[in-house]
Amino acid sequence: MDRIDRKRDDLIALTQDLVRIPTLNPPGENYREICEYLRDRLASRGFDVELVRGEGTPGDSDKYPRWNVIARYEGTQVGECVHFNSHIDVVDVGAGWTTDPFGGELKDGKIYGRGTCDMKGGLAASIIAAEAFLEICPDFTGAIEISGTADEESGGYGGVAYLAEKGYFSPERVQHVIIPEPLQKDRICLGHRGVYWAEIETHGEIAHGSMPFLGDCAVRHMGAVLHEMEASLYPQLAQKRTEMPVVPEGARQSTMNINSIHGGQAEQETDFTGLPSPCVPDSCRVIVDRRFLIEEDVEDVAQELRTVLETVKHQRQNFRYDMRELFRVIPSMTDKNAPVVTSVAKAIGDVMGKQPEYVVSPGTYDQKHIDRIGKLKNCIAYGPGLLEMAHKPDEFVGVDDMIDSAKVMGQSLIDLLKPQ
């Protein structure tokens, strides 16, 4: 679409503006500011815009309210709705940057900054695509929605999950959803693997560090748990393979990450210059991040962890533990013949002259809530950017990739909404 090419400077400026609003999560900074920016932009183009706070959701507080923005543009005739959903939050900056993480620097055809790839570049591309469509197709059937939602990086409970519970993603209101996550401009992401997070705590007894035989070291107990995971569980996971087209290749099997480990005394503030006291730790906790396949049952996933713990219990004297589930996500995968899939595939062919690659994400994103809570199956992820750049230092998105993705989104609107 030539009109999108002519909007190149606008696309760059919009992306830079979004990146320069540091919406760090945690804790959830500047959500209201970015929602108001999007409201003003879209309202000036004729959208009806609503700000919705995810009240009472995890992390929501008066200091860090979970704000979301939803904009809707009605066509001249009643018909189906296409919804572009992007998350507004970004992860911690981390070390290793050579550019300003919130500067939005344009260099060699790339925009740098935290969130450029994941996923403010995709959000900007969807806005440009919708605006170009409305300019050339003012008389269309149906509706277009664009949303910027909170907390995807921490589960999406203050964003898409909350909105889905309120009916914003019901099949009666919305029929097609495109989530512009960075899966590369010639890929269609059909869904994602499942997640099971749990906290495991081993218990001991505190005593003086010079006489550890008078206590019971919870850290040593946890060491035995980790050893048993290495010996039995990890080899089992490596044997589990999926027919889902998960990328990268290493994620075609079941995986598990030890997300964190904490044992003994709490770490002191960075300005504390003293030494720790000599104590036997009476508690040790790990967070387990297990990613599972559509062929697996989540109850079996939980039982595998319990089996590890029970095996250690039979091997070690005085071994005591607790296991607490933190959350679970069931795998999701849209059918390749779903309307939104076929429209986007056709558009990729029209714009790039090639057939798309169909993939599944190694991690979850907000499709899980649209599918499980909203009961809306006709949903995919499609957007610009390289998946491997997400959460990395010197994160970037290519301008040409955003242009091409915006053209695909615009062509998909033409196909799905069939303007007169």
UniProtKB/TrEMBL annotation:
Peptidase M20 dimerisation domain segment(s): 191-314
Keyword Membrane: no
Cofactor(s) required for function per UniProt: Zn(2+); Co(2+)
Pfam families per record: M20_dimer, Peptidase_M20
Keywords from the named record: Cobalt, Hydrolase, Metal-binding, Plasmid, Zinc
Organism per entry: Qingshengfaniella alkalisoli
Family to which this protein belongs: Belongs to the peptidase M20A family.
Superkingdom of the source species: Bacteria
GO molecular function, one term: metal ion binding
Record protein name field: Acetylornithine deacetylase/succinyl-diaminopimelate desuccinylase family protein
N-terminal signal peptide: none
InterPro entries noted in UniProt: ArgE/DapE, Bact_exopeptidase_dim_dom, Peptidase_M20, Peptidase_M20_dimer, Peptidase_M20A
Oxidoreductase keyword on record: no
